[in-house]
Amino acid sequence: MRKRTALLALLTLVLPTPAIAQPTNTVVSGQARFQILSPTLVRTEFAGDHRFENQGTYNVVNRSFPRTAYRSRVENGWLVITTSALTLRYRVGSGPFRADNLELRTAGTTASPWRRVVCATGQLCEAEDQQREGMLVAAEHPGHTGAGFVAGFSYANNGITATVRAVSAGRHRLVFRYTNGRGGDGKHENRTLGLSVDGQAARQVTLPATADWRDWRLLETEIDLPAGEHRVALTRRAADSGNVNVDSLALLAAGQPYPGGRAMDDCRFGTVCEAENGTLTGAAEIADEHVGYAGTGFVAELVGGTRVSQRVSSVPTAGTYPVVLRYSNGVGGDGKHEPRTVLVNGQAVTLPTTAGWTTWATVSAQIPLPAGSSSLAITCPSAGCHVNLDTIGINASAQHLALGGYRRSLDGYTGNSGDPRLYPGLMYRDGWCLLDDTASAYANGTPRPDRGAQPYQDGYVFGYGQDYRTALGDLAALTGGPKLLPRWAYGVWYSEYIDRTAADYRDRILPAFRQHGVPLDVLVVDTDFKAHNTWNGWQMDRSKFPDPQGFLDWVHSEGLHSTLNIHPSIQGTDPDFARAQATAKGKLAKGSCADCYVFDWGDPDQLRAYVELHRSMPTDFWWLDWCCDGSGSSLRGVTADSWINEQYARMGSFAFSRGFGSLQAGGYSGSGPLQTGPWAEKRNTLHFTGDTSSTWGAMKATIGYTSAEAVSTGMSAISHDIGGHNDTTGLRGSETYLENGQLRYTTKLPDDLYARWVQLGAFQPIMRLHSNHGDRLPWQYGPEAQASATKFLNLRERLVPYVYTLAEQAHRTGVPVVRPAYVDYPGSAEAYSTVDSQFLLGPDVLVAPITTPGLIGSTRVWFPPGQWTDYFTGQVYQGNSWATVSAGWDTMPVFLRAGGTLVERTRDVVNDQHAVDALTVHVTAGARGEFTLYDGTRIIHDNGKVVVRSATKRDWTVVVHNPDGSSRVSPPEPT
């Protein structure tokens, strides 16, 4: 009996305890609160003042999830919460979340989701480690420490807030390292910011001008502090001039020099930590120019005498443990490409060569560590080791590598110098993510109240493993699903940056579409339609559009919809300026563009003035081409993009715009992520990705980019310039136009590039032809290219019911229209390695565009598990295999999954206004499947027999693709 009891006790320690239903989804432990929203999603909230938040935020609009079964218990001083998918552990009474007191375990990975940097007296506080409001990290000016510096303070409420700890009470020196060169406003003068401690009234500090942006200086001020933690904020207020860069800060006692020792959070035992988050000494620098790294960068080319240190915590017992280094070892600065040696706590470890600097490898070494906390140092011998160090794993090897990624725009991307840099979002290979919502405003845009010196954290820990569909569903339920556009928006768009008139559209362009049998749903009218100033005028030029409302009425009468291009500034000489300035109560400020004024959309008066300017220009929705004016938003906790796009959605059902940040936070094409961009943006926005170049490389990049952005942000409606925007060929096109009084010709693509790009566009979320004074219409190309483009544009129009159904599913489930194969096949390594060459359109259609020149092209295709049938040729491919597939311009590699369903219009139509009264269903014999159309129609098929259950009367045609490559056409089975 005793043996049996002992065995049962042992089993309870080894086996996981099953989750059970609980009366509430909330567990409170002192100042920490945990809300179990789903098996894979837990809200983690710490309130030093015990005031937990229950209001929705700009990111998080819903926490009403179905009840989740879980267990919670306190064990050896730890609160342990377990669901069917994850375990979260928090050390009871240990204060705010940080690496050593909050642990996540999911799908074999152990992680520390929260990283909290507190700068004690005498420690260096890197500005990029602090909470930032409306600001990004830059690195283009030399002389900074760490990964870079916080750049700009260019807009009201831009700022940083650092958490410091006064070791003792009394008088302290607060010192900032900054630079102040010639700003974006053209001025080179002393600048001001507001300095606030613990939420108290800010006082103004003056930052004297420096020689240039490379001239770093120290600014010192004195403050009285009691012992303990404090929040120090440096913010640009309305009365401040800003326009400075801040590298770091430090809280110092009398006589202490400005430090070099960086404050950092722990590297917890059992986790993988970022090398760039450690302390660097010597010549080591943080860089990010080589793709494939984890985190925000890597420690670049360690040379003799350099050192990377991490503070390791929570080692259970003294012993020897594996330390895993992720590194790259290409041709070093010494010209050698050979194995290198580093010292890990003095122990020599050899790092074999890698193929180059973008190839990463891992090596493991057994290193003695004491129990508890200690320091781990990777040192480069004096002879030099010339390697890049990415991560350091302490008894762990699972890498936190981003899957997918996003950016505000692809403006200027040529496709000739590697992939565009992407910023990580929801998806990671090791299966977890933290959505830090601490700084987000309330749902209505009102900032959360300041809590003084009290710490506050609010974040959502996703622990999904490889269940990416569930992660996307959690994100959609939490932050809102991706916008479902009107059905016509999934048809064919025609856009071109060239001067057009109402007569051009009415008498030449639309008749040509009709004559050549090309469908059209959306007319995009670019910027030249404006009066007074073609860039930022606010009335339609009556010489080009004599009757603006009449033009819109004509558009609607033809079954079309239109959008007008907007640039968000106004000339001081514009006829509407005086009224706009009066509505804004005189607050419109001079912008950096010539004689223009810009808007602060965070100010209600200026927002009202901006919205009213649109009223004289009737259209269905607006294209906010916000690239380089100077408008923005001073709202705290809401990015300018997401805020103004929400206003446009209210004006015209959805925003057609860039997203995920704002120009005020970075450069025209390179501005990176801001907190509420990725999570809130998708609710209102059709993302226009910007002005790319017309190259094979740029075309190819969109294959991977669409699905990368979709899975990392939840955005589903993503629109590229089909054909590219910026000409690279100089080939003469078919039209002429005037530029500065000179006659110019439009340009065109090579026929093969045009045909292949239109093919790709036919299977993207949005099919929008666009260019900068370039030909993009089928009849402007040779016979073979014209025939190909006409065929695929008509195919796209026939596919609208299917694409719209996928968009409706995306809105409900979060799983985007276009996705990488690993969303549906997470266990297949090939699903990850082929993201740049193929994608899934819904679960049932595999698309592998050809991206090489010539009349015949080919591509290497990986077929996921199952059986796949070529949509055009009927050839059948077995899953878990590779094949090289060739096609001329009349076809492309598109495949239907066995058991899948593809629905399309039976006949070509001129636009989506035509009723969906005749549909064709494609199925493959040999597997059972079911598909529900957007209107509730259920299509069930089994071994080629198809049953359609619909409340809508339609003519149905069934095409059954047989396993031998043949096909047959039949009506559906009677219900």
Please write out the topology.
Blueprint: H1 2-14, E1 26-29, E2 32-38, E3 41-47, E4 71-75, E5 78-82, E6 86-91, E7 102-106, E8 109-111, E9 119-120, E10 124-126, E11 131-133, E12 137-138, E13 149-152, E14 159-166, E15 170-179, E16 191-197, E17 203-207, E18 217-225, E19 228-235, E20 244-252, E21 267-268, E22 272-274, E23 279-281, E24 285-287, E25 298-300, E26 307-315, E27 319-328, E28 340-344, E29 347-351, E30 361-369, E31 372-379, E32 388-394, E33 432-436, E34 456-463, H2 468-479, E35 492-496, H3 502-515, E36 522-525, H4 548-557, E37 561-566, E38 570-571, H5 577-583, E39 589-590, E40 596-598, H6 604-613, E41 621-624, H7 640-652, E42 655-657, H8 677-680, E43 685-688, H9 696-713, E44 718-719, E45 731-739, E46 742-748, H10 751-761, E47 767-769, H11 783-798, H12 800-813, E48 818-819, H13 829-833, E49 839-841, E50 845-847, E51 857-863, E52 867-870, E53 876-878, E54 881-887, E55 894-897, E56 901-905, E57 918-924, E58 928-932, E59 938-942, E60 945-949, E61 955-961, E62 967-970
Parallel strand pairs: 9-14, 21-26, 35-36, 35-47, 36-37, 37-41, 41-42, 42-43, 43-44, 57-61
Antiparallel strand pairs: 1-2, 2-3, 3-34, 4-5, 5-6, 6-7, 7-8, 10-20, 11-14, 12-13, 13-20, 14-19, 15-18, 15-20, 16-17, 16-19, 22-32, 23-26, 24-25, 26-31, 27-30, 27-32, 28-29, 28-31, 33-34, 38-40, 39-40, 45-46, 48-49, 49-50, 50-55, 51-54, 52-53, 52-55, 56-57, 58-59, 59-60, 61-62
